[in-house]
Design goal:
Blueprint (H helix, E strand, L loop, with lengths): L1 H19 L1 E3 H8 L3 H13 L4 E2 L3 E3 L9 H5 L3 H12 L7 E4 L3 H4 L2 H4 L5 E5 L2 H7 L5 E5 L3 E3 L4 E3 L1 H7 L4 E6 L3 E2 L4 E4 L2 H13 E7 L11 E5 L5 E5 L4 H10 L3 E4 L1
Parallel strand pairs: 4-5, 4-9, 5-6, 9-12, 12-14, 14-15
Antiparallel strand pairs: 1-3, 2-3, 7-8, 10-11, 11-13
Helix pairs in contact: 2-3
Length: 256
């Protein structure tokens, strides 16, 4: 009987994660009415079976659903995102014009960028605007468009039209997932269209993706990894995946 209960609990965990996209250990523990340690063991097993991907804070679905709320994603993999944000910001030099895409990983660039002088930041992220618009020495340019609460982004024809008028030194993009075919993907089709436009106006482009994003597939394909100057991820990405990525990307940066 205990085995049946465990099997039912794990089935519900997979169902919940697939439905919500991202869930923390605490949320799963409350749903199942069991201990955090039991949930962690369940997640380890389910990860090994290829049914979901375990993270430090919980679990993510392998097939990314549309419109996972920004605030829920923002709480996951905080250390990994902070490391990626610092590594990406270190590539930015005074006097440059950079574009910061919407997303929680790209948002982690905002704190270290406050120290860069004479910098112009173009963004389609409502959160990046809130973080940087009032900083001395920074000029912030917002792309117009329709605000999308789930992603915290501005998208649509107005944003795309604005991109026709500008060029940037470096663009930093987020992703819903990197597919098994080594493509960046996004669950938001409108945002995926805008990201393709961003790639066309940037002298250099960087894909920011923590280790949980690999092997996941969003609704729309943005581009192959080779379209980016570099892929920036965190040190928790397994060595075998690092080896594979280096075969399919122009450059891989491991943030520590």
């Amino acid at each position: 009987m205990p085995r049946m209960i465990a099997a039912q609990r794990r089935a519900r965990i997979v169902e919940s994660v697939n439905h919500r996209g991202i869930l923390s250990v605490g949320e799963l523990s409350r749903q199942a009415g069991t201990s955090l340690m039991t949930i962690r063991r369940d997640l380890t097993l389910l990860d090994s079976q290829g049914l979901l991907r375990r993270t430090h804070g919980g679990a993510v679905a392998l097939a990314a659903p549309r419109d996972v709320p920004f605030r829920r994603r923002e709480r996951m993999e905080l250390q990994a995102k902070a490391a990626i944000g610092r590594a990406a910001a270190a590539l930015v030099h005074p006097g440059e014009t950079v574009l910061l895409d919407a997303g929680t990983t790209v948002l982690a660039m905002a704190p270290p960028l406050r120290a860069v002088v004479n910098l112009t930041v173009v963004t389609n992220s409502v959160q990046v605007l809130a973080e940087l618009w009032h900083r001395p020495g920074l000029r912030v340019v917002a792309l117009g468009g329709v605000a999308r609460p789930a992603s915290g982004s501005l998208t649509g024809p107005l944003a795309e039209k604005t991109l026709e008028e500008i060029r940037v030194d470096r663009a930093f993009l987020g992703t819903t997932g990197i597919t098994p075919r080594w493509e960046a993907s996004n669950s938001d089709m409108d945002l995926a269209v805008l990201q393709r436009r961003i790639l066309s106006v940037a002298r250099e482009s960087y894909l920011l993706a923590d280790h949980t994003k690999f092997g996941r597939t969003g609704l729309a394909i943005v581009s192959p990894l080779r379209a980016f100057t570099s892929v920036i991820t965190d040190a928790d990405l397994p060595p075998n995946l690092q080896t594979q990525i280096r075969k399919h990307a122009r450059k891989l940066i491991i943030a520590r």
